[in-house]
Amino acid sequence: MTLPRFAIAIIGLALIASCQLTDPTETTPRADACGASDLTYMVGKRAAEIDVSDTAETVRVIGPDTAVTMDHRPDRLNVHVDDDGVITKLTCG
User: What are the tens digits of pLDDT across the range 2-17?
Assistant: First the structure.
């Protein structure tokens, strides 16, 4: 049994109509979701003197020999410090 051309056309249109283009801004997290770019003034200060608890939900301090997990969390603020505890850079992830 073969389907008439009309039925095939209706099925094709239904399949095409079910496809939606997504807006990449809805699914892509902000590059600076943790607010690191707003905190660049902290670079060069001692991490112990800074309170970033109100800036990001999750904060981790990463020293030169600190082991870190490889999971990427855009909302997490990474505070990179040197051996003296001075902030060298701030990143999200």
Answer: 656 665 667 666 666 6
